[in-house]
Amino acid sequence: MKSFLFVKLFKNLRGIILKGISKKAIKKNSKGQVTKYFDKFIENQIISYLRKNLKIKVEIVSEELNKNIIINENNQGEKFYIIIDPVDGSDNYVFNIPFVCLGISIFNEKKEPVFSFVGNYYTGEYIFADNKKIVFHLNNNSKIKKGGAFFIMSKIDSKYINTLKNVVKNFENIRAIGATIGEMMLVASGFMDCFIDIRGRLTLENFAPFFLIAKHTKSVLSDRQGNEIKLKTFSLTKKYSIIFSKNEKIHKKIVKLVN
Questions:
Q1: Checking DSSP bridges between strand 194-202 and strand 220-222, what pairing results, if any?
Q2: Sign of torsion over alpha carbons 160, 102, 6, 186
Q3: In this structure, are 160 and 225 located in the same domain?
Q4: Do 107 and 77 share a structural domain?
């Protein structure tokens, strides 16, 4: 997969995001969530770009689509699947919080990851990986101090408050930044210790790029019990609980704490 195509796409989308797009609600998606104009606009930009630049047979899966879109359907050879999260951190964008991300992952017919791209629209940082390598494009002037004892967590749910209290006692700091992809980027980059969401509300597009990213780093991605997540479907309505840690030692500690 030609990584420069996705770097160019990200930079184009970043320019659009930074200029500002309408935040008005326009419909509800397949999950029953309210779709904002900017969600659909960015998704359309991505699909249009892929149509023009990809030569392989591809089925596009994105949460704002009513039906998956197939590109180059008549091409010979294997079909690939692209999972898109056009604007991860939609609420952040609505409230002008500068932590909004892009996630794109490509899988083969065996549901094996072959390419991943994640990027933070506001910082301009991105990571991409294929089966041979991973590339980090991070800002040298990052204000986040690397190596601190941090624990990243999604929105707190009262149902799990006792479990989370147990975790809190074991970590110096906790952050909830509001964009799963961005938070997982920080873990993969080594800036944060772990991301956890045990509410059973995440869907595939929220974390799909990190199957491949984890293979190239010491990071570990699993379900709440510490088991490997094996994809049986590319459904974006199936719900998951996940734990993503920067190394095996921390991962084992977290799994023990939440169970």
A1: unpaired
A2: negative
A3: yes
A4: yes
The CA-atom distances, in angstroms, between 94 and each of 5, 17, 100, 145 are: 28, 12, 10, 27
Encoding tokens for residue 165? 């209290």
pLDDT one-digit tens code per residue, 80-122: 999 999 999 999 999 999 999 999 999 999 999 999 999 999 9
Query: Which of 130, 100, 113, 120 is closest to 38 using CA atoms?
Result: 100
**121 and 236 assigned to the same domain:** no
Cβ(117)–Cβ(102) below 8 Å = yes
| Residue 29: CB atoms within 10 Å | 17
Q: Roughly how many angstroms between the first and final C-alpha of the chain, as a whole number?
A: 39
Q: Which helix (H) or strand (E) holds 52?
A: helix 37-53
CATH of the domain at 13: 3.30.540.10
